[in-house]
């Protein structure tokens, strides 16, 4: 990635933020350049929360850091693309559950494969040991 500034001058927070933005942009482009169904990063975030689960929409809303209205808009978009199905919850007329369709599962799994390829590319660039070290540090409790 070409930087318009010196990355050596960035603090930890800004370095993590810059890498996060870069990785999300690259993964979104990898998907959207090779598939007919456009899926945004926000949609992927919600798809990941649904995969292999049957959560309620209110549960999803609590798990994501976006407004309730935005969450519902994203879910409606995913439904219109045929990626999720929404259904009622037994014994609760207000609550709705959500699950991925067969197409939604296939898209998620294909995207996971694309991300694994990107991870391998990063490992080839910085070294597998460095990549594993980064992953371990990110998994640790940072006390914040």
Give a quick summary of the entry.
The protein is mainly alpha-helical.
CATH superfamily: Winged helix-like DNA-binding domain superfamily/Winged helix DNA-binding domain
Which ranges are low-confidence, i.e. pLDDT below 50, for 5 or more consecutive residues? none
Give the termini separation: 30 Å
CATH top level assignment? Mainly Alpha
Strand arrangement, largest sheet? 1-2
Any idea what the radius of gyration is?
18 Å
Approximate strand percentage? 5-15%
Given helix and strand content, the structural type is mainly alpha
Helix count, DSSP H or I runs of 4 or more residues: 6
- Residue-averaged pLDDT: 91
Report the CATH architecture: Orthogonal Bundle
How is the main sheet built? Answer: 2 strands, antiparallel
Total strands: 2
CATH topology: Arc Repressor Mutant, subunit A
Gross morphology:
globular
Into which percent range does the helicity of residues fall? 55-70%
Topology as a string of helices (H) and strands (E): HHHHEEHH
Write down the domain tally.
Answer: 1
Describe it for me?
- This protein is mostly helical and 144 residues long.
- It has one domain (26-139): Winged helix-like DNA-binding domain superfamily/Winged helix DNA-binding domain (Arc Repressor Mutant, subunit A).
- The protein is 61% helix and 10% strand.
- It contains six helices and two strands.
- The chain has helices at residues 12-32, 41-50, 57-63, 68-80, 102-126, 128-139, and strands at 84-89, 92-100.
- Strands 1-2 form a two-stranded antiparallel ribbon.
- The chain is globular and about 55 Å long.
- The chain starts with 11 loop residues before the first helix and ends in a 5-residue tail after the last helix.
- The model has no long low-confidence stretch (mean pLDDT 91).
């Amino acid at each position: 990635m070409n930087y318009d500034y010196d990355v050596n001058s960035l603090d930890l927070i800004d370095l993590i933020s810059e890498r996060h933005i870069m990785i999300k942009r690259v993964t979104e482009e990898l998907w959207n350049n090779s598939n007919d169904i456009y899926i945004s990063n926000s949609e992927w975030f919600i798809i990941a929360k649904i995969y292999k689960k049957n959560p309620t929409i209110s549960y999803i809303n609590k798990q994501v850091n976006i407004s309730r209205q935005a969450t519902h808009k994203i879910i409606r978009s995913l439904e219109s693309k045929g990626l999720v199905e929404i259904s009622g919850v037994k014994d609760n007329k207000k609550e709705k559950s959500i699950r991925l369709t067969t197409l939604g599962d296939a898209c998620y799994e294909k995207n996971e494969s694309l991300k694994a390829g990107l991870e391998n590319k990063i490992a080839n660039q910085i070294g597998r040991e460095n990549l594993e070290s980064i992953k371990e540090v990110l998994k640790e409790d940072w006390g914040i």
